[in-house]
Known about the structure:
Rossmann fold, 2 domains, seven-stranded mixed β-sheet, BCAA_transport
Amino acid sequence: MRKYSLIILFIVVAAAGLLWGCIESFKEDRQTINGSDEEVRIGLNLELTGPLESYGIEQAMGALMAFEEINRADELSGITIVPFRVDNQSDAVRSAFLSNLLMTQEGVAAVIGPATSNNFIAAIPAAVYNEIPIVSATATADTITIDRYGDAYDYVFRITFTDSVQGKSMANFAINNLEAKNAVILRDLNSVYSEDLVQNFVRIFRENGGTIVDLINYTGNGRDFEPIVNRIKREDFDVIYMPGYYQDAGDFIKQARELGITKPILGGDAYDSPMLAELAGTSALNNVYYTSGYSPLDQNPLTQDFIVDYREKYGRDPNAFSAFGYDAARFVADAIQRAGSGDPEAIRNAMASTENFPGVTGMFSIGEDHNSIKQIYVIKLENGVPAQSIVVEPIE
């Protein structure tokens, strides 16, 4: 029954995909595949245009840099990785269509992306049906690697943390590091990401003596937060928790600071985008904290060398999405190397057995649920720039 449902899904998705006509691909990434293990094609299904393009573009840049380094140094002993990137336009239906297209028509051995949770979830059925591994570098929704029966999907992996982990970790930070007793919560009703983080933050904050003085719902892509800011100003609070995407977070922070709110504003890893400073202004980005799996302040030589190389290649500093894109590419390459071929099943088995992988985002292993086991940071911004990173743990 599950297989027939997936077949029907792909018929619907493929029909929807035809509305866009031919997909836009990046021709310089395409090469003729000869069917041997000498070349292995890897798909990059990312948000290269649309409202979430900052995440996908940075992730693609990190991944392509890693593949270029791997091929140039012949790190896979004669196996060449051929990346094939496609633009899902920040759209879930297109993400599903392209996931299936990459696997059935482009012959990829694995796919990285999409970068965001809603789009990645839409791409999962193609991986399950076609038995091709798909890797989440940055999508954090708890349900990504787990099916409705509570079992790990055989072909789905994640190298970042879950929403529950970062929601709990920020609650821990608010209570123990900021000594917060009262919190205002802003929740995006249109976002699985926002809902998951809020749910976990609220539970842990309350269970450890904190009070939620107001929980305010909004719908994403709103630009006028003045009524919400004026409502918040009437409350007695220590922190504001708003785990939204950079568009809404940037606008909210800007308006909150302009209207006199100076208390700490807390968020999730989606704050890590250069667009946040463009929208909020650097002067507004003080006393702002967000959870992240990557710290540019980490003095690990791998991390610092990556920052230097990225800056030299692209003329700007990487963010977490760049770093996780880089690590995802190397995670896939490491699995190919240990598998000794481009066979998707062998690559999948190698991914599942990954232990102590040395990433630029820190060392991680893959657990039985196909999620990574790694540390989490809270990053403090000063004038829009990361000024401090604190390692925190979630409170259960």
